[in-house]
Amino acid sequence: MKSNVVIYWTLAVFFLFVATMYTVWAYLYYGYVEWVGVVAVYLLAVLFAFLAFYLGKVYKAQGGELPEDRYDANIDDGDPEMGHFAPWSWWPIALAGGAAIVLLGIAVGAWIVPIGVAIVLVALPGWVYEHYRGNFVH
Amino acid sequence: MEDVTSSSLSRPTGAPLINRPNVVAVGTIVWLGSEVMFFAGLFAIYFTLRGTSPELWAGETSVLNVPLAATITVILVLSSVTAQFGVFAAERHQARRTGWKPSQWGMIEWFWLSYILGAIFVVGQSYEYAILVSEHVSLSSNAYGSAFYITTGFHGLHVIGGLIAMLFTIGRAYAAKNFGRKEATTTIVVSYYWHFVDVVWIGLFLIIYFLR
């Protein structure tokens, strides 16, 4: 985990450097600021700084190295509850189908869009509340 | 963060007990990283058009309603603050209020307040759009209109998405018999998204209304 943080900070500094070089070089070459590259590469630096900062926070809150980062850890040390995962769920497919129909409608004919919207309106709450009703109510 | 861990209940014998990173929270942050690059494209559009037609910017920015935009900016920032208080309540697993004082509020009350503030932002922005259209600045009027509506419009869609996510989060808190880690995680990741959208708006506000 620590190496992830260090790699991301390194990339942030690298892109900060590249962005500055790009800005100056493009200005000297074209005679005006080339905004697309300037914005994109500077925000790449922001992207990596953002990830590095958050992972650094997570690493500090961990209070130690993850078992997968230790040479002396056993397989079962890395076998805790990893989080909440649905054992099975049809809702993602329903939602993706609804979104696909909406996009198809935008491309082909607007009359298709409401059909997709109706599916999305059912599938989205269906997925969000899947574990709050029926068998999984808690 | 201590109550969003997913460490095993029994302490493993080999490695020391650690708080495993919450996969939902880390995944949300990585996705928000991709959102940074999405908005990078929008900012690039804005600056490029501004660079190629400065004369449009000289004329069209005069119709912007800066006091209104500043007001809704403050309201959006405040909604981030109230959402964070909702997170604090969620981290102590408190869904509902125990009294009327804000210090006794639960996650539900704070998120309702954040929702209302966020909705006021959307209303304010819609009003701004209506005024601008009446001043003949529209999506298809010229490059300035396109740049303005595409950047603020995609941001507005993100705010509306965040409002829907907040309603879902509040609904989960009402639906759960016990407000636990799963609900706290939902609250935390929705707040991450909300803070992100807030920060993007501060950038947009500075560029569109302040820098011009």
Automatic annotation (TrEMBL), chain A:
The chain crosses the membrane at residues 6-28, 35-56, 90-123. InterPro entries: Cyt_c_oxidase_su4_actinobac (IPR021050). One of its GO terms (biological process) is electron transport chain. GO terms for molecular function: cytochrome-c oxidase activity. It is found in: Cell membrane. Its EC number is 7.1.1.9. It is a multi-pass membrane protein. This is cytochrome-c oxidase. Part of cytochrome c oxidase, its function is unknown. Belongs to the cytochrome c oxidase bacterial subunit CtaF family. GO terms for cellular component: plasma membrane. Keywords: Cell membrane, Membrane, Translocase, Transmembrane, Transmembrane helix. It catalyses: 4 Fe(II)-[cytochrome c] + O2 + 8 H(+)(in) = 4 Fe(III)-[cytochrome c] + 2 H2O + 4 H(+)(out).
Automatic annotation (TrEMBL), chain B:
Keywords: Cell membrane, Membrane, Translocase, Transmembrane, Transmembrane helix. It comes from the Bacteria. GO terms for cellular component: plasma membrane. It is an enzyme of class 7 (translocase). Residues 1-212 form the Heme-copper oxidase subunit III family profile domain. The keyword GTP-binding does not apply. Its EC number is 7.1.1.9. Belongs to the cytochrome c oxidase subunit 3 family. This is cytochrome-c oxidase.
